[in-house]
Amino acid sequence: MHPAQARDTQQRRGLDGKRAIFAALALLVIATCAPGAPPPTPEPTPIPHPTGPDELVLRIETSGGLIPPFRLPTEFPQLSVYGDGTVVTLGPQITIYPPPALLNVLQGRITEQGLQLLLREAAAAGLLAGDADYPLQGIYDAPTTFFTVNAGGRLSHVSVYALGLEDPSDPRLTPEQRAARQRLAEFARKALDLYSWLPPETVVERDKPFTITRLQVVVLPADAPEAPHPEDEQLVTTRSWPLPTPLSAFGEPAPWFGTTARCGVVSSGNELPRLLEQLQTANQLTRWRSQEQTYVAFFRPLLPDERGCQPPHART
Hints:
This protein has helices spanning 3-33, 112-124, 175-191, 271-279; strands spanning 56-63, 79-82, 86-90, 105-110, 132-134, 144-151, 154-161, 203-209, 215-221, 238-240, 252-253, 262-266, 287-290, 293-301. By secondary structure, the chain is an alpha+beta fold. An eight-stranded mixed β-sheet has the order 5-7-6-1-2-3-4-8. β2 (79-82) and β3 form a beta hairpin. α2 packs antiparallel against α3. The longest helix is centred in the N-terminal third of the chain and has 31 residues, at 3-33. It is globular and about 80 Å long.
């Protein structure tokens, strides 16, 4: 082939290639803009939130109702999620009597993607819109569910009395109240079953024993009115208090629990390991002997954002 003819052939081939590329791009544009074609899904805007391992992002807890007063010092949130993705849950409690002295508390961790998915569910339930309270008439002695969410540039506290116990046809509920309670009940169900629906790649670890670094201890004399009095005294055992500070001077007065109650936090030196070792074999009926007096003690692990020795719902 003559060199000039070869050049013409190469130029035609190049032109044909460019035309093919332009045609493909045109078809793509037409397909994208054609009526009925779904638009590309934009990435959702991340919901801002604190990022520290001791900064609370979301919490669900339940309190009140027909519970014995001595349960107050050991009430524990069902779910707490922190800025670094740490998840702390109240795990299954062993069904023996007397129950163990320490609650079964578990921890895990999710990625930022998992935390964003959880926060989107919270937003859909209305939990990023500020404080709200949902009372309910006609039901008595039911617990209240408390939601705390720190995200989207706002700290929101939402309380719902008798969540899930309402009659959907109750005329005293407005359609808006009924819908809000339904959304919150659905969110609570999903959040408390977090690992069942989050994508596996967003779960770093789950259901490991919670590492106790601080332990709240509420004590009062065994004969105080607020102390539990078991029907079968044979189940009661007595031990010597293992720490150097006598219980009569332990911590500070805790009038929110009883006139003679005291509350302190054990966290320093060798005291915490020594006390935790004793609690591995103690139970909720164990009595503690200190300076010739017998005491009842209630033990509760403290979460990273909690100061301790505060009345329920005022612990941070």
